[in-house]
Amino acid sequence: MLNRRKFLALSTLTAPLALASRHLMARPLTEKGKMWPGSLKTQGQPSVKFGEKPIVISTWDFGQAANEGAWKVLSQGGHALDAVEAGVKIPEADPNNQSVGMGGLPDRDGKVTLDACIMDGMGNCGGVAALEHVVHAISVARKVMENTPHVLLVGQGATQFALEQGFPKENLLTPKSEAAWKEWLKTSHYQPVMNVENQLYHKQTGDMPGGPNNHDTIGMIAIDASGKLGGACTTSGMAYKLRGRVGDSPIIGAGLFVDDEAGAATSTGVGEEVIRICGTHLVVELMRQGRSPQAACEEAVKRIVQKGPERSKTLQVGFLAISPQGEIGAYALQKGFTYAVRTGSINQVYPAPSYYA
Ligand code: SD4
Asked: Is residue 172 domain-resident?
C-alpha cells in the first residue's frame, strides 16, 4: 500500500536529487524589479520577482491543489488569512489524503485527531489540538481566534467548542485509513516517519516508491495584494501516535509563525523536533535580524541537527519561509521535501534543498 507513513531506511535514499543542494541557495538579489533567486532559475528554484504579490506557498506536492484554493481568494484581492484558510481546506476535505482532515490516519487507538492553527501578521492567532469528528480543523482554529479570548483549545473541549460553533459532527476514519490502522496493529511498532516519499522526487530519481497517496501536513503561508501576511497549518499528526499526543502543527511558533514585519514560516515533519527549537518562531526571528528566508530555514534545520545529531539522521523536518517582500526559503533535513509556489506567473512544485545528501 502506498502511503507517506512508510518507515524508510536511510539506505534507500542514496540516489542524488539533482536539483537540491543547500549550497545553491545564496542570498538572492533584493533590488526592485530583479529576479531573486534569479541565479537559481536554472536550478529549478522559483524565480519570484522582488515585491511580487500576491504569493502563496505550501508544503509538499499536494500544496499545489491547496494553493489554487488560496489563489482564488488572493487573485481577487482577498485577505491572506481568508486565502490560507480556503487553501488548506482543500486537503482537509480530501479523503484520499491520509495526513490531513478527513481520512487522516488515526492514533494507536484508532481515533482520528486533528491539530491546526492559523495566524495573521499582527499576532492574531488560534489553534486546536486533538480535535475529533470535525473535518475543517483550520476553520475551528479560526473561530478560536475570532470568537474566544484564547489561543488554543484541546481535546474534548476543542470538539465541544466546534460543535457549539455549528460545525457538523462527522466520522473522519475512512475505510482505507481504518484498514491501514488494523494492518499497523499487527505489529504496533511506532517509529517516526522519514516522510521523504513524494511524486516529484519519484519522477526525478525513479528510485523511490511514490504515488498519489504520499502526503504530509499542509503548512501554507501567503502575502496578499495589500502586503499582509497570513499562515495556516493543519494535520492529523503522526500516524499511530499515542492518544493525546500533540505535534508542532497547532502550536504557534512551532508549526507556524507569522509577522507582517519580519515574515512567515511553517514546518512539516516530526513535530517533536520542531517544538524543541520553537522552529518557525526561530525562522521568523532570524529573518527579522536580517537573514534571508533561505538562510533562516537552514539555520533552524542545523539547530535540530545540533540538538540531536544521531536522531536527526533518521527523521524528516522541513521548513518553508517567506519574507514580507516575497522572497522564499525552503530547507529540510532529508531530501525529498517539496513545496508548491503560486504567484501571478508561477504555479509549480519545487524540491527543497536538504542538510543530508
Ligand atoms: C506532527 N508535523 O504532528 C506534524 C505532522 C507531520 O509527518 O508532518 N507528520 O508532528
From this structure: no
Helices (H), the chain: 63-74, 80-93, 137-147, 155-164, 175-185, 199-205, 271-276, 279-288, 293-307
* 151 in any annotated domain: no
C-alpha cell at 8: 524508510
Determine the 3-state secondary structure of 114 from DSSP: strand
- pTM higher than the cut 0.90: no
The pair phi, psi for residue 70, each rounded to 5°, is: -70, -35
Specify the CATH number for the domain of residue 314: 3.60.20.30
Q: Is residue 28 part of a domain?
A: no
Q: Which atom of ligand 1 is nearest to the CA of 217?
A: 8
Q: What is the pLDDT along the chain (357 residues), one digit of tens a residue?
A: 333 443 233 333 333 333 333 333 333 434 344 444 433 333 456 777 777 899 999 999 999 999 999 999 999 999 999 999 999 999 999 888 888 999 899 999 999 999 999 999 999 999 999 999 999 999 999 999 999 999 999 999 999 999 999 999 999 999 999 999 999 899 888 765 555 444 333 344 333 333 333 347 999 999 999 999 999 999 999 999 999 999 999 999 999 999 999 999 999 999 999 999 999 999 999 999 999 999 999 999 999 999 999 999 989 999 999 999 999 999 999 999 999 999 999 999 999 999 998
Active-site residue identified among 217, 235, 338, 343: 217
- Domain count of the chain? 1
User: For this structure, is 217 an active site residue?
Assistant: yes
Kind plus residue range of the DSSP H or E element containing 328: strand 328-332
| Contact assessment for residue 236 and residue 105, using Cβ atoms and an 8 Å cutoff | yes
Using CA atoms, how far apart are residues 81 and 39, in angstroms rounded to an integer?
A: 31
Which residues on neighbouring strands pair with residue 129, listed in sequence order? Answer: 154
Please work out, in degrees rounded to the nearest 5, the angle formed at the alpha carbon of residue 283 by the alpha carbons of 235 and 274.
40
Domain extent for 283: 3-10+37-100+190-351
Residue nearest to atom 5 of ligand 1 (CA): 237
Q: What is the Å distance from ligand 1's center to 235 Cα? A: 7
Phi, psi of 297 (to 5 degrees): -65, -40
- The one-letter code for the residue type at 173 is L
C-alpha–C-alpha distance, residues 70 and 74, integer Å: 6
**Alpha carbon nearest to ligand 1 atom 6, residue:** 269
